[in-house]
Amino acid sequence: MFLSILSSLNKCKPSTRLLSYVQGQAPPDRSDVREYFYSIDSFGQLFLDDTRFKNFTSCYKDPKFLHFFFTRLRANTYEDRPYFTTFPYVSLCGRERNFIRCADVPFVLTRLFDENDLFECCHIPTTNLSIQFQPERLYIKPDTGRIYYPISEKFYPSVALIKDSIAERLSSHLIYDGKSNDLPCSIEWKGKIYPLKNDPHIEKLVYEHSRFEI
After folding, report:
1. In the chain, which end has fewer C-beta atoms inside a 10 angstrom radius, N or C?
2. What is the number of alpha carbons within 13 Å of residue 57 lying toward its C-beta?
3. Torsion-angle region of residue 181: left (phi > 0), alpha (psi -120 to 50) or beta?
4. Which residues contact 201 (CB under 8 A, 6 or more apart)?
5. Checking DSSP bridges between strand 96-102 and strand 89-93, what pairing results, if any?
6. Is the peptide bond before 157 cis (omega within 30 degrees of 0)?
7. Each residue's pLDDT expressed in tens, for the chain with a length of 214 residues
8. Contact 136/187 with Cβ under 8 angstroms?
């Protein structure tokens, strides 16, 4: 069941709303400010929102830029702008307001290094940003089957989606007891069994911030 849900995810597209904007525009009351618009897909790739063909060749790849961009990401509090709902996040850089919308949550864990149990986040090298993997902290959203993981409280929001290819690999280690509404109860990792904690705080973050719907 879990794998069948995962296999269908890339066929499902979150709804979007067309907005009129110009990259680099200034808000009416601030001629010194520039506004840009970005989107993040479920693979953790960052694009200018109006990029026509979004794929690996058109996404941002510079590690320093990605680190700068994601570590400054926060809630969009510019309620006076028409993009407040559609672009719920913003990354500030001087007088630039970089508004962001995402396919799910803005942070995506894009690689897992088994040798040291480290996640790469948003294609930023682990030498600059890494997340320690603790198997028991995985959270599986019941209605989508997607797997999430908590990240440092210094990031907003402090939860990340695990990229599908990693989630599929981890799913082969999940253990079911038949008593948890078809959800796994634990995970086997490197010869040890870890009961899944299903932390209510992580669950709350996922339901508050996940934009993905089947």
Report:
1. N
2. 2
3. left
4. 150
5. antiparallel
6. yes
7. 444 444 444 444 444 446 789 999 999 999 999 999 999 999 999 999 999 999 999 999 999 999 999 999 999 999 999 999 999 999 999 999 999 999 999 999 999 999 999 999 999 999 999 999 999 999 999 999 999 999 999 999 999 999 999 999 999 999 998 776 789 999 999 999 999 998 999 999 999 999 997 7
8. yes
Q: Quickly tell me which residue has 């069948």 as its tokens.
A: 4
Residue type present at position 150: P
Nearest partner of 205 among 162, 159, 163, judged by Cα: 159
Peptide bond into 28 cis (omega under 30): no
Q: Is 193 helix (H, G, I), strand (E, B) or coil?
A: strand
Residue indicated by tokens 């989508």:
144
